[in-house]
Amino acid sequence: MATQVIVLNGGSSSGKSGIVRCLQAELPDPWPVAAIDAFVDALPASLRASNAGIEFAEDGGVTVGPEFRRLEAAWREGVAAMVRAGARVIVDDVFLGGPASQESWRKALTDLDVLWVGVRCEGTVAEAREIARGDRPRGMAAAQAETVHRGVAYDLEVDTTHTESLTCARTIAAHLT
Amino acid sequence: MATQVIVLNGGSSSGKSGIVRCLQAELPDPWPVAAIDAFVDALPASLRASNAGIEFAEDGGVTVGPEFRRLEAAWREGVAAMVRAGARVIVDDVFLGGPASQESWRKALTDLDVLWVGVRCEGTVAEAREIARGDRPRGMAAAQAETVHRGVAYDLEVDTTHTESLTCARTIAAHLT
Amino acid sequence: MATQVIVLNGGSSSGKSGIVRCLQAELPDPWPVAAIDAFVDALPASLRASNAGIEFAEDGGVTVGPEFRRLEAAWREGVAAMVRAGARVIVDDVFLGGPASQESWRKALTDLDVLWVGVRCEGTVAEAREIARGDRPRGMAAAQAETVHRGVAYDLEVDTTHTESLTCARTIAAHLT
Amino acid sequence: MATQVIVLNGGSSSGKSGIVRCLQAELPDPWPVAAIDAFVDALPASLRASNAGIEFAEDGGVTVGPEFRRLEAAWREGVAAMVRAGARVIVDDVFLGGPASQESWRKALTDLDVLWVGVRCEGTVAEAREIARGDRPRGMAAAQAETVHRGVAYDLEVDTTHTESLTCARTIAAHLT
Hints:
4 copies of one chain form a homotetramer.
Chain A: E1 5-9, H1 16-26, E2 33-35, H2 36-41, E3 54-56, E4 62-64, H3 66-84, E5 89-93, H4 99-108, E6 114-120, H5 123-133, H6 140-144, E7 156-159, H7 165-174
Parallel strand pairs in A: 1-5, 1-6, 2-5, 6-7
Antiparallel strand pairs in A: 3-4
Helix pairs in contact in A: 1-7
């Protein structure tokens, strides 16, 4: 069966968005992206920086509250339904909960053909790129570099530390069925 | 039963996004937005400006191809599933197909409690705002101001020509059940 | 002598940027804009939110420190030199210091032909637009609506409360010499 | 005498902006950036994509007309005046005219202490990054990778092909006097 969903998991500034754009440019079929960042942008401003929603601390830490979790679960169901309706989708997420996040996706994507991809980047390099992009709180990259992968199982891992996004995307594309 | 979906339909530069942000600020519950603009941004770049995808002509015309339509239909199913999973959602759309667009949403949102809202703005004013914002092809506002509403049925219409987005949002909020 | 500089002064969310884009679209000559927002974006991130730089408080207050002032003065000299070198320039500023800000510009623009324009917007309307745009700290619009005009002398004032940016721009354009 | 201006020259997607943000983060003094991209954004929309202004062709070519050149020259004078007024400034430019562009800057920056830095990146890598960022016309990176450096003299060259922006920035910072 053909791959229906590519789930990319990686820390902040690990290069996921770049890989998504390269995948979209390389793959013959049109794959829309469902990115956690876009989901957060779709929320009311009040839900960002609140205990019920999602909070980005100055040291790069991220905490999510019950309302955020509830809506995030609904968003996952929405992504799954979009795939069941015929779209092939790339998910661009940060598994803040590690294996629990993967389990949530696994349940939502039941019966769908998923390629699980870990996007790694050495903490110091991700941190340097965080400074270079300048639009993320300092510290997120380092804080997430290892933790988001702990206990997560992948079909494939790519590493942007010494490899360009385009090359990583081609490696992923070669694994699609 | 409580309103589960607010569907806003209006032409380019009619003020929908502003109303969405005001609704999100005013409503006690968190309502994520599902905007057609964000959906287009989630597509591969190649699908924009292609016959299969969506094309923005220099005169402000917009044409969509078969691949775009197919993915848009899947997106609507995704939005509906997100609502069925418990999220209350604001849809921010431009009914390029008029009543056919509404019919597509109606099918996707079957059994859900929907508030249909028309967002109007006089063509000349929308055109002036299009110049002021400077990030849209000139001509879209004028081309869409009337056509997107033709044959569409609403529970409520608001008009941003002489009324601020916040006031329009409060009118909409007062109609929620 | 022909007008060489248009200085727009107005509070946050009063509609200055929209007027700038309309002026640029309406005027036959190309007028680049020198906007305080772009100047702030050109500063190191560390200078934002620091005592030495510029701080945006959660209540909408803005405070600037000595380093910011020093660089801002240099920026004004740069704008003046650009005009002396032959460019006609629109300045888009917020006179946080009221008449003192105007005096600083007056010194920098000595011997140049300047049109001083006040861009007004009723506080409650500016506040509503601040919510609608969603990218500014709540409270800035209300805090600045009156204060930035106090003691400032204009050649012309426009008011966006009930008038579109394009109409305001045309009024300004008609005053150019 | 202390370095007053750092001029970075490099092709599209060579990594200049990332280096600028890292320099701003690393240097103890606040260095505002004067970027050609920000200058282009400050121009009327009509001057982009016109024979008199600047045109970005679909194949990545860039052509500039007489009005653009005239305003660009005024902008350079403005940057120089800002430095003479006491600001230390990083210039982020693309020498489309090669040595002629450098000569123009040299004249504008007469008597100032300038550090000339070439930012190199192998064409194929810059091209891959252009796809990954997704906000530039395809082809610019490859077209400019070599040509913008031809005949230009530097105090220092950095290469982002295999070196992170932060490391390049630190190399540059070490050369400041």
